[in-house]
Every structure is written in structure tokens, then in C-alpha cells.
Amino acid sequence: MNKKEYWDKHLGESWTEILKPLLKTPEFNTILDTLAVNYIFNSHYPEDVNSVFKAFKLCPWDSLQIVIIGTEPGPYTGTGPLAFSDTSVLYTNHSAALIRQCVADYKKELYLDFDTSFEHWASQGILMLNRSLTCIQNESSSHKDLWKKFFGAVLYVIEKYKPGTVFLLWGKEAGKYSKLLSVNHHVFSCEHPMKAHVNKTKWKCNNFAQVDKLFEYYGRDKINW
């Protein structure tokens, strides 16, 4: 399989095309080489190395409407490949559980079938983007530097070529990008779900209502949260 076929398979054709300048650099090949070695000798989140770029595959560039920025996969932030996602049966990830409850309160439904993998959101053009796509288990921020350039490149192409994109920035770290993105995009902020968990309070986020009002104003199809 040549490189283009590899990226078409894992990122999707539209992301491969828009990120082509980055994917062709020797520095990015170093990321892949590092992951190949690390996944052999360490346990990682996400567990399957082939799912690392799943957030992009499920949300093609052409369909992109909303970006939700997370930190990295992990037991508190979501062990799945999509930001905040929880694919376990027992809902061990507090962030995903609080997001589900917040949406349920907003929609005034029990929402027992809420998809905490967030693949349903991704299919509607929501990119669940972690700043680090991988992390060694029990070693927080272990791959922060590894993914820094990739994350920056993704933000750059969205900022430059997708004006009007909605960004949901949850927590202080994500909020640092507000000034950069607010010129040509719609930016909504809220505290991080984990802060509510630590404080043992409900996570009250009005971003879902804000997005719905924005989409209604522009005549766009509402998101099925």
C-alpha cells in the first residue's frame, strides 16, 4: 500500500488532500515510526493503533461543521479515538457521562441510547479533535509534543479554508485558541466537564442551545445531539 492509499484509508480522501503538505514531510513520518514502536512496547489509548485517525475518517473535510477540542485519550477524558468518547459498557469515563446528562437535560429526555462513542455526532460533521491523538496508559501528556505539529496543521487548514466553522472550547486549555479562531469562526466556550466532576456539580453547558440557534439563524439543519 502506497502512502496515499494509506492516508485515504485512515484519514479519508478529503483530509488527505487538504493535509497533503504536512503528510509528505519527514517530520510526520517520524510520528508514524514512533507510534509503531511505542504500540509494541507500551499500552496506549486508543488501544487499536488503526483507529488513531478515526475522528477524521468519520467526519470528512467536506462535511465539517463543528470542532470540539479535547486533550488526549485517557480514562478521564475518553479512552476512544474521538475526543471525550467512551466505548465501554459501564461508562467509566466521567466526561462522556456528564456530556450525556447535559444533553439529556437540554432536550428534556432521558436519552438512555445516547452514543458516548460520539460517532453519531461525527457523522453529522462534528470533528471530535484531541490535541494529542494518542497517549501511553498511565502517562498523561506522554505524546503531547509528538502531535503538536499535526494538531496545529489541522487548526491552520480549518482556520484558513473553512470560515464559519463552529468551535466548542471546553476548559482553559482549549479556551486558549479562542482569540485565534474567533475572527473568522463561531466560538463558544464552557468549563471542562471534568471540572464539574471534581467539584461534584452538574456540568451546565449552553453550547448546544447556542449552536442550535446559530444554525436556525443561518437556515442550516439542526444537529441531532
Features:
single chain, 225 residues, alpha/beta, Uracil-DNA Glycosylase, subunit E, four-stranded parallel beta sheet, two-stranded antiparallel sheet, 12 helices, 11% strand
Distance between the termini: 37 Å
The CATH homologous superfamily name equals Uracil-DNA glycosylase-like domain
CATH class category: Alpha Beta
Largest sheet at a glance?
A: 4 strands, parallel
CATH fold field value: Uracil-DNA Glycosylase, subunit E
Mean pLDDT: 93
CATH architecture label name: 3-Layer(aba) Sandwich
Lateral arrangement of strands in the main beta sheet: 3-2-5-6
CA radius of gyration? 17 Å
> Spans of 5+ residues with little confidence (pLDDT < 50)?
none
Percent in strands:
5-15%
Number of helices: 12
Question: How do the helices and strands line up, and which of them pair or pack?
Answer:
Blueprint: H1 3-10, H2 13-18, H3 20-23, H4 26-41, E1 44-45, H5 54-58, E2 66-70, H6 94-107, H7 119-122, E3 126-130, E4 135-136, H8 144-161, E5 166-170, H9 172-175, H10 178-181, E6 186-190, H11 193-199, H12 207-217
Parallel strand pairs: 2-3, 2-5, 5-6
Antiparallel strand pairs: 1-4
